[in-house]
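step=encode ok
step=design start
structure_in=
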């Protein structure tokens, strides 16, 4: 684990954006851009959450700070939680386990995992392997 962050925001009107705050925090903490991240696993409790996160990082402000995120080559390459599964109370373990497996299969060095939770909560972790 290179870095992690937990976030909580006012759920109205920003219910879907708690992971965004955590992603920004860990990228800044580690002085990383999207170019430094090989894979991204975003919890997809529902499609709008991932779309809201991706839309936020397309903003000119975020692109200037973190670079452009190549969604097609990095984000949820095996499908998100809608396709793979969203086992309540074990989603975080499923996400991290899947990310570690994907890192091994794809020989990725660094993966960012993010999850949203009820009430405007978010959790993000950056995983690295040598």
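sequence_out=
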């Amino acid at each position: 684990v290179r870095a992690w962050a937990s976030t909580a925001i006012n759920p109205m009107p920003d219910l879907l954006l708690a992971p965004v705050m955590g992603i920004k925090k860990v990228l800044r903490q580690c002085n990383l851009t999207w170019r430094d991240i090989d894979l991204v696993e975003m919890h997809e409790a529902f499609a709008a959450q991932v779309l809201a996160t991706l839309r936020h990082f397309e903003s000119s402000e975020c692109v200037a700070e973190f670079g452009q995120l190549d969604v097609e080559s990095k984000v949820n390459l095996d499908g998100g939680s809608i396709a793979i599964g969203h086992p309540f109370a074990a989603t975080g373990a499923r996400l991290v386990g899947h990310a570690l497996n994907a890192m091994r299969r794809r020989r990725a060095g660094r993966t960012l995992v993010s999850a949203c939770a009820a009430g405007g909560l978010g959790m993000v972790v950056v995983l690295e392997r040598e």
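step=design ok
step=annotate ok -> Residues 3-128 form a domain with the Peroxisomal Thiolase; Chain A, domain 1 fold (CATH 3.40.47.10).
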